[in-house]
Design a protein that fits this description.
By secondary structure, the protein is α+β, with helices and mostly antiparallel strands. It has helices spanning 50-63, 119-122, 126-129, 153-183, 215-218, 250-258, 272-276, 333-336, 374-388, and strands at residues 39-42, 85-88, 192-195, 201-202, 208-209, 222-225, 285-294, 299-308, 311-318, 343-350. It is globular, with a radius of gyration of 23 Å.
Length: 394
């Protein structure tokens, strides 16, 4: 999704992750998202890639900031490290890459509708499609663990290295943007926020990408540098705050930092008070959701997930709207809201002692169906229901 408030948005294409005349796209591959390689180092200048073009376009805008009569808001998005992991060769990651991860297995007692099989999307990319036997030559719905042997470890390790390389490249581009602010004397007076729109798996639980409600998929980076205008007093030393925040909090927080009145009808809340007093409790819970299809029950499902300080709790409910566009392709408003009485599966993971340095130890056994956890499961269900349900459902 692309957009702009005051000027036409800028979204360049990348010549290095597209099929072209010399390497045509197979007829059975979709035009959207298809590419000849899932990962590749390209020996071309970093300035010629689409993410660099976006950064350089933004830098031109920053360089002309002295001509603007009002404060500016500038949103710069990067495609990387999204697949395909295609990057300038000079940013090749040369450190150690460990594969498989220690949680390279299917979570014990997980509902069949909860995990994701990445190989179908993987078939969009020419190098993965050429692997024999085919990476989709397994029956995931009948045997979830079959996914764990679908793609050679050597290829997945290569993809992981390229993912790290893409991160190094994006880090360089962020540095270019910050450098432009400093060169133009705008750094101190500018609020900068860096975040990702979702988490990512690199082989954890035998899967890749973002398409589930695991901690790996829903945890995102949020890095903030407030403007030094004197309007707020912050702890100036950089630190990681453990409190829970979510993406709906970003907009009201930016308004708060800018001294703009926050509308009362927003779902999110400002996290600026946490910057002033890092010992504050913050939110008790945050939420996410993701759709799947359940072959076992022959239905579409929506996973409604809640993260508290101690637990991640997810309920997979029957869902009768289009998974691709549920807000515009749904039989009725009632079909779009959670159907709490039609539970297809439940997940419960204990993060009580999680130091947030790795997620590999905390979501390997689903606790939701253990007899000893039934009281807690019911308590978390009530909390999820009361905080997600519409007023008319309560």
């Amino acid at each position: 999704m692309y957009g702009s408030w005051s000027v036409p948005y800028y979204h360049p294409t990348d010549p290095y992750d597209q099929y072209n005349a010399s390497n045509p796209r197979p007829k059975n591959q979709p035009a959207h998202g298809a590419a000849p390689f899932s990962n590749e180092a390209v020996d071309m200048p970093w300035q010629t890639f689409n993410d660099a073009k976006s950064a350089l376009h933004a830098i031109d805008w920053i360089n002309n900031a002295s001509k603007y009569d009002e404060p500016f808001f500038l949103a710069v998005g990067f495609h990387r490290p999204h697949i395909p992991y295609v990057f300038p060769k000079e940013f090749q990651y040369t450190g150690n890459v460990t594969f498989p991860p220690k949680d390279y297995y299917i979570t014990k007692d997980i509902p069949p509708c909860a995990p994701h099989d990445w190989t179908g999307e993987g078939m969009r990319y020419g190098d993965l499609r050429k692997i024999e036997p085919s990476i989709i030559d397994h029956n995931f719905q009948q045997n979830l663990s079959s996914l764990c042997t679908a793609v050679p470890f050597s290829k997945q390790a290569e993809m992981k290295r390229s993912y790290y390389s893409c991160i190094q490249y994006v880090d360089h581009l962020v540095g270019q943007l910050i450098g432009a602010l400093k060169t133009n004397g705008l750094y101190e007076q500018t609020t900068i926020i860096f975040w990702g729109d979702h988490g990512y798996k690199l082989g954890e639980h035998c899967d890749w990408f973002k398409h589930d409600n695991y901690e790996d998929s829903t945890r995102i980076p949020v890095i903030l540098k407030p403007a030094d205008t004197g309007a707020h007093q912050f702890l100036r030393t950089g630190m990681m705050l453990p409190q829970l925040v979510e993406e709906v909090d970003i907009f009201p927080s930016l308004l708060d930092l800018a001294g703009i009145t926050i509308p009362k009808d927003l779902q999110g809340t400002t996290f600026v008070p946490l910057l002033k007093n890092p010992t504050m409790a913050g939110k008790d819970m945050v939420f996410s959701q993701y759709p799947h299809t359940s072959d076992k029950y022959k239905t579409q499902v929506m996973g409604y997930s809640m993260r508290t300080h101690e637990y991640r709790y997810t309920e997979w409910l029957r869902f009768n709207c289009s998974l691709g566009d549920p807000m515009h392709n749904c039989a009725s408003k009632q079909s779009a809201i959670p159907h709490w009485g039609e539970v297809i599966g439940i997940e419960l993971y204990n993060h009580t002692n999680d130091p947030s340095l790795t997620f590999g130890d905390y979501e390997n056994v689903n606790l939701a169906y253990l007899p000893s956890m039934q009281s807690l499961q019911k308590e978390l269900h009530e909390t999820l229901y009361k905080n997600w349900a519409l007023p008319e459902q309560l």
